[in-house]
Amino acid sequence: MNEVETKDVGTTDLSAYMMKVIEELRRDRKPPAVHIYACTLRSFIRFSCSGEEECSMPMQEVFTPGRLKEYEQWMLLRKLTQNTISTYMRTLRAVYNRWMPPGTAEHNPRLFDDVYTGVVSQTKRALTARQMEQLLEADLSGLSPQQQAVLAYFLLMFLLRGMPFIDLAHLRKRDMQDGRITYSRHKTDKPITVRIPREALVLIAKYADRHSASPYLFPILDARIRDSWQSYRNYQDALRHFNRKLGQVMSRLLPGVRVSSYTARHTWATLAFHSGQPVGIISQALGHSSLRVTETYLKPFGNELVDKANRQLIASVRKCKWKNETEYRAGL
After folding, report:
1. 143-162, pLDDT tens digit by residue?
2. Which helix (H) or strand (E) covers residue 311, if one does?
3. Which of 40, 229, 232, 275 would be a feasible disulfide site paired with 91, CB 3.0-4.6 Å?
4. Please, what is the angle between helix 291-331 and helix 263-274, to 10°?
5. Pfam families given for it (predicted)?
């Protein structure tokens, strides 16, 4: 073990250590990671410092099975979701592995075995084909200009093969050429090319950003912002605004139906799956990093198709039985 590692063990404070990591992430222009690390640190400070703004948190005391279990119980008492708890625990695990790298004598590979680090699959909501048709043909006269634009963005995400909101918001004017949109997915950096359907062309023509100074195709983000952290905050604000306005739109057009920015993408995938499109095609359209990701994504619908096949089989058997009984009676 080298001198630096010996010095760190038992003396490094969690808050100081994580702040250094956060600063590195800022320099590397990774705003989402900065946000998660900062939220995790604030949460653990509230747990460990009992309401005080700061206190001593030696990492050798933090990273023990008992202390981590206490933190998990503290979060459960505050009714944090399983996925939030898992996010904080996985962030602490990343910090621990950075501080005490796997393979070193002091590293405990089972340290996080007794706390939750999994992911709870959320029930995703998709609209039906009929509901999408209603939105595509909706009378917009009762909506404000902002609400009309939000509905247009939602429809565009569906029409452009389930494009995520983050990718729609970051589309550049130069990405649209010769009737196609070419861009890289923010999540996977995978290049995507989409032929623009005529229904989408109409919406793009109406709601595109008219300001020549803005590089963005749509007026969703502030083009004047250059700082990566401020850009991330700007996107988060735009996402919250979009979901709030989308809720208002749906309360008028589809009362009682809950949607979010993710619904358009999930609806596209669901309708494509139920229309019999091969999983490989759906995977390519969604820009997933692998077919396995798509299979996991669509797994809940497999049971629906099996149940449908079962109902059809039972119906055919009952129909056959009814037919045989009818023929028997006719012969009497």
Report:
1. 999 999 999 999 999 999 99
2. helix 291-331
3. 40
4. 50
5. Phage_int_SAM_5, Phage_integrase
